[in-house]
Amino acid sequence: MTGQLQSKSPVEAFRSIQLTLTISALVLSPLFFGSVDQLWVAVWTILLSISTLLGMAAPVGTRQARILSLFLALCFAYALVAVVQVTPDLIDQFDDPIWSRANELLGLNVGSRISSRAEIPPIAIGHFLLLLTSFLSGFFAATSGYSAQKLVRWTRASILLYAIYGLASLALTPDMLLWAPKLAYQGSLTATFVNHNTAASFLGAGAILWFCSAYSSLRSLPWSSLRLLLLTPSNECLALRLIVRSAAALTCFFALLLTDSRGGLICTCGGLLVAIGLMIVRKLKPSPWYVVGAGALAVVVIGGWLSRIGRIGSEGLFDDARWSVYGFCIEAIRQRPLLGVGAGTFEAFFPSLRTADFSGWGVWDYAHSAILEIAVEMGLPIAAMIVFAAIASLVVLAWRALQSSGRDRTPLAAIAGIAALTYLHSLIDFSLQIPGYLIVFGILLGCGLARSSAEEVKVRKHAPAFDGLMPKFGEIARVKPAPENVAASLAAVDLTR
After folding, report:
1. Predicted structure pTM score
2. In this predicted structure, what is the pLDDT of residue 3?
3. Hey, is 365 helix, strand or coil?
4. Whose CB among 52, 117, 187, 311 lies 3.0–4.6 Å from 136's, allowing a Cys bridge?
5. How far apart are CA 155 and CA 153, in angstroms?
């Protein structure tokens, strides 16, 4: 037995390395200005690609294989459209007229393409690969419940550290972003991100994780007698855990408030409402009408509170320029609805949409709506598939959070809340287009869907370190141990609990 414990099988070694690589990308990708530089995009793509290849050694259940197949099919459809867009002389009726004009004016003989660029921009390829590999890395890691719990714990702890750094940086060096001068969002907390909206999404995800963890600790406390609660020594650890987790949640939420991000605050409150609601509904089992009424009341109360604080109270929800950009995007979609204008071409294409009365202030390298930008670049069919996949993932996470009765319940509810936060915020901003947040969300989403589609286990598993080595409880019960092996057998039985 000792020799077996000391030596790992190749599959176990691969899974251990894969989990380490996934956690490294999860924790470090937000550090270097959100990893917006192409160098860091390449670094994380290579690291997560290795993690994905190693993760293929993990056993995958039938339902998990179905989730993977749907995700890979969506990615294949996206990649296929992107390749079609840059293939010359493929579908003449969808070609961008800029190519024929360039040939006439410059005397060239360049093949026409659907895209306004001759090739897919490297940064667009990098972001696509980051989403693909981060999702797969999180998914393969979370085929083990122990690894999934570890991923969630590392995420909670790392976001808390980033929040503490952001608070300290805002207080001590408000004009600096890490080691560089802070050129934008003076007076707002951005942590290690350049944009305060991305920082708000990131910190909001941490707040949801910590609030759900604190609620789980609160639910574990015995409330039958306040005197018993205060005087029983066994409750001290539970009470201390509740205090620490609540303090961490409030730290992340306070940091979120200091980002001055309207969309980030609103979407975080919506995501938190979803996450806590899933945990409460599971506990109380109220009628559907009660859930709808309580949810509507909570939305009204939160909306009234948000309308009176910060930039929301002074400036409203949206600025006029953003609405104008959305109008330009809808017009571009109307003109080229099926195959779009080309993957990764929004920044180059947008100047052609600007009108004379549009403000000349600002650089619109993003549409400030991820789904509108996808519809402009890739066409309505791909955008519709992505919207359907996002809604389906949220439904799967929420349903399994309601059905789960084990350790997966709290992280699944939290990841469902983070998914709601991220999807809502992606409608009005570009946090998902920043690699430092995209990687974190991709890993968490993959982790959540892997646990949501995990096969039900009838017999409780033993400790992860003894995976595959220790007999199950039923087998031990059928064997009468020799007297000298009683202690070892009892220890084995104890591990199955």
Report:
1. 0.81
2. 44
3. coil
4. 52
5. 5
